[in-house]
Structure prediction request, 64 residues.
Amino acid sequence: MLILGAIIDYNKFETARIIGARALQLAYGAPPLVEVPAGMSNPLDLAKLEFSEDVIPIVVIRVK
Prediction:
């Protein structure tokens, strides 16, 4: 994900939180942000696809 020109590397906990939150949104009827492949109906798989294509509109704010 690009924020102000910097590439963000999410750790495994941030990745799990982002994918889980997006999967919940999709399960409750949010529209997908990517073209849904034929046969894909699982919200978790769709959220992983969106994450891999870097289109999920969720931002992680790290406190130092």
Q: What stands out?
A: Helices lie at 12-27, 43-52. The chain has a mean pLDDT of 88.
